[in-house]
Design goal:
155 residues; alpha+beta; Sulfate adenylyltransferase; 4 strands; 20% strand; elongated
Length: 155
């Protein structure tokens, strides 16, 4: 997504968090990351809206003085579909982890709750505990199990 230079400061400081675009089809996707200056725009949602939805309040939220000013800037090419794109700015070097409320509840207690949705780190730590607590596998020919060893080629 490309923004005019006059909007970029407002986007970087978090004051502008949406944009209206008039396209033939969406050019961005939810969850997509798009470069802007030294950071990234992360798309949170895309909604199809009507021309009547472009109000003065939406124009102000998008960083424009009026709906007419927004409409002139939003028109790109021959498209006639209007999209409201909500996003947030991610600074250079920043990273984010999206966590749902069930994961947050599990992290707050010492004992993890058993639920269908467990965090990946919890599943990994449970697997590691099982491996550590299991008896080691026998090595060598007595029990019929052998390990794979590299063979040297004899000339």
């Amino acid at each position: 997504m490309v923004f005019t230079k006059r909007l970029r400061d407002g986007i970087r400081n978090g004051r502008i968090r949406c944009s209206v675009r008039i396209w033939t089809r969406p050019h961005v996707k939810v969850g997509g990351r798009y470069r802007m200056d030294e950071g990234q725009i992360v798309v949170d949602s895309i909604a199809s809206i009507e021309l009547t939805d472009m109000t003065h309040d939406l124009a102000r939220e998008s960083g424009f003085n009026s709906a007419e000013d927004l409409l002139q800037t939003a028109k790109h090419g021959s498209g006639d579909n209007i999209y409201l794109i909500r996003f947030h700015y991610l600074r250079l070097g920043a990273w984010e982890v999206q966590r749902d409320s069930s994961t947050l509840d599990e992290d707050r207690t010492d004992e993890p709750k058993t639920s269908e949705r467990q965090s990946r780190s919890h599943k990994t730590s449970t697997l590691l505990q099982r491996i550590r607590n299991s008896s080691p596998l026998p090595r060598g020919g007595k029990d019929g199990l052998t390990t794979r060893r590299s063979r040297r080629r004899k000339d």
